[in-house]
TrEMBL record:
InterPro entries: Alkaline_phosphatase_core_sf. Keywords: Membrane, Transmembrane, Transmembrane helix. The chain crosses the membrane at residues 57-76, 88-105, 112-130, 169-193, 205-225. Residues 1-42 are annotated as: Disordered. This is CDP-alcohol phosphatidyltransferase. The keyword Membrane applies. The keyword Transmembrane applies. It comes from the Bacteria.
Length: 595
């Protein structure tokens, strides 16, 4: 007790002699309100002395929490379905090695090692959380070499869907979360390093036992709850990410050479697409139109009815259709990768490849029409709300973006306008006008873009006007926040969105298509994994519609299914093969370039 008394006395600041008892009392009050660090330490030591059991319980609790945090970070899976209690019933090798290193170091190096270990756990936790997000939405893990460019797009999507305030809060929250995780992990590793050093003998024995147990379990292949007891999950995760980064950098170098080679790069204009001369050709992508929409029992019934009904409607109007499957280069998002893969004949499955190919002069299918000089080429992109330099790469004479279509109605979450309106504006401003040449159109429909709330509904085509008719429909629709967090609702609303987009497109074709209209429409990718499933394929439907029987005869050897709904046994091709198959089917002659 005298020791603590001296400590408290020595921690008191020098107080000038006061002139009265009142002044002395004021000084004592001010001191009590603003304790110095040394006085706080004295109070803590005094509290521990007065409450030894509580102090010991607090000490054990904080140590146990620190150990739980470290073990949890080392054993944390990288997919949400795997986050369950059994995943944490393992012996992590990284924990045993960390303990051995700490026990063998003097004080200062030990503290440095503990801080570095905590930062390493922060990095591991961050990549695991990113993996969870990417697997949940894109059906794949995070790629540190390629995916940082997607984060601004993700923030923009949140802003368009839930509002700018939510997007800003989410971005700030993510940064704060990382800093908080770093602070907590470093504090935890410093705490454990202190405890291990204080109880060096028992800690050494414990590390020896844990190491022996790990080696034994590893050698014998012992498992518990379906997984190995001896774990190296943390090191393995970092190793996978490192290898993924190295492979991505190597792939980029190889793709640069690949993109320079082109089967039709030197084909003269007169030898491109001779069998489609005089036809108005429309390539249309329906957002997130994937195989799950046609085959998933929870989604397909409504979509299949729409496809069957639309097939009948088109048949009565004199049109016929053939359908198959394409395997997309992307999944759950990054639609532009699917668009560019189908049009370029190159497998463009990441942003680096996309930037590489769009910076070059590789022949796109759309550019092939322009190269002939026999078509005017236009793009209709209601989702484009800023400068779009890819317009030149696609070979478009004119681009109609979100601001060029005269829409004055409300946005539907991310989608700037309903598909029905976009198609009617396309007809009014482009397709319905007289011209000297036929038209090649590249149309991107957006109403089926996640989060699928609120959704537009079909209105009379003559009632569309400037789009204000959609105001009451938008107000009565579901809130994005209510749907995006509910898997069951997301699946149901996704199916409804595909029905709406297909109906809009096929009604437009019935209403405005002519004997010379050729429509190719397809999906860009499957919906996010939470809707389509983690193990869902990457296949998307593709259909070709025309009145002229000669157009369909050219693809008779493709063995596609009759109608708008591809059969389960219809051919499945990689999306990058579509360009060359289409060009060859309609009479184009290969003249390779580059390579």
């Amino acid at each position: 007790m005298p020791v603590f008394t001296r400590l408290r006395q020595s921690s008191q600041p020098d107080i000038p002699e006061a002139g009265s008892e009142t002044e002395q009392e004021e000084v004592r009050t001010e001191e009590a309100e603003t304790p110095t660090p040394r006085s706080r330490l004295g109070h803590l030591l005094a509290w521990r002395t007065r409450h030894p059991r509580a102090a010991r319980a607090l000490h054990l609790a904080t140590t146990a929490l620190a150990a739980a945090l470290v073990l949890g970070a080392l054993l944390l899976p990288n997919t949400l379905p795997a986050v369950e209690p059994v995943s944490f019933t393992r012996i992590p090798a990284e924990a045993v090695i960390g303990a051995v290193v700490v026990l063998g170091l003097p004080r200062r190096p030990r503290l440095v090692a503990a801080v570095l270990y905590g930062l390493g756990l922060t990095a591991l936790t961050a990549v695991n959380l990113l993996d969870m997000g990417f697997n949940e939405y894109l059906g794949r893990g995070f790629n540190a070499a390629l995916d940082w460019d997607l984060l601004p797009d993700a923030q923009a999507y949140v802003g368009d869907t839930l509002g700018g305030g939510v997007a800003t809060a989410a971005a700030v929250g993510a940064v704060v979360l990382v800093l908080l995780v770093a602070a907590v992990m470093v504090a935890a590793t410093l705490r454990l390093a202190e405890v291990l050093a204080r109880h060096r003998t028992r800690a050494t024995q414990g590390a020896l036992i844990a190491g022996t147990a790990w080696i034994t379990c590893s050698a014998l292949g012992l498992t518990l709850f379906g997984g190995p007891i001896a774990s190296e999950r943390g090191a393995g995760a970092l190793r996978v990410h490192a290898q993924r980064t190295v492979d991505s950098l190597r792939d980029e170098a190889a793709f640069v050479k690949q993109a320079k080679a082109d089967t039709f790069g030197n084909t003269p204009p007169e030898q491109l697409l001779p069998d489609l001369r005089g036809k108005d050709v429309i390539f249309t992508f329906i957002e997130s139109y994937g195989r799950s929409a046609v085959e998933d029992p929870a989604i397909a019934p409504g979509v299949d009815r729409t496809l069957d009904t639309s097939t009948e409607v088109l048949t009565k109007a004199g049109f016929h259709a053939r359908s198959g499957w394409l395997t997309s280069a992307t999944f759950g998002g990054s639609s532009w990768l699917g668009h560019s893969t189908a049009m370029s004949g190159l497998w463009i499955d990441n942003q680096r490849r996309y930037r590489t190919v769009t910076a070059g002069d590789h022949l796109t299918l759309t550019k092939a029409f322009r190269k002939t000089g026999a078509w005017d080429t236009v793009g209709v992109m209601p989702g484009v709300q800023k400068g779009w330099p890819e317009e030149k790469w696609y070979g478009l004479d004119k681009l109609y973006d979100a601001f060029d279509l005269g829409y004055r109605g409300p946005k539907f979450s991310w989608s700037t306008m309903p598909d029905q309106y976009a198609l009617e504006a396309f007809q009014r401003q482009v397709h319905g006008k007289k011209r000297d040449k036929p038209l090649m159109s590249f149309v991107i429909l957006t109403s089926s873009h996640q989060p699928w709330a609120p959704l537009p509904k079909m209105v009379g085509w003559d009632e569309l006007g400037d789009g204000k008719v959609f105001g009451p429909i938008q107000k009565a629709g579901n809130k994005a926040a209510d749907v995006i967090t509910d898997t069951t609702k997301s699946r149901a609303e996704y199916g409804r969105s595909i029905q709406y987009s297909v109906t809009s497109l096929t009604q437009w074709m019935e209403r405005y298509g002519t004997d010379d209209t050729v429509l190719v429409f397809l999906g860009d990718h499957q919906p996010m994994a939470r809707v389509s499933g983690i193990r869902a394929s990457r296949d998307v439907p593709v259909s070709l519609v025309a009145k002229d029987p000669k157009v369909l005869e050219k693809i008779s050897d493709w063995n596609w299914t009759e109608g708008l709904k591809p059969g389960p046994d219809a051919p499945v091709w990689r999306m990058d093969s579509f360009r060359d198959r289409f060009l060859k089917a309609y009479g184009s002659t290969p003249h390779p370039s580059g390579g």
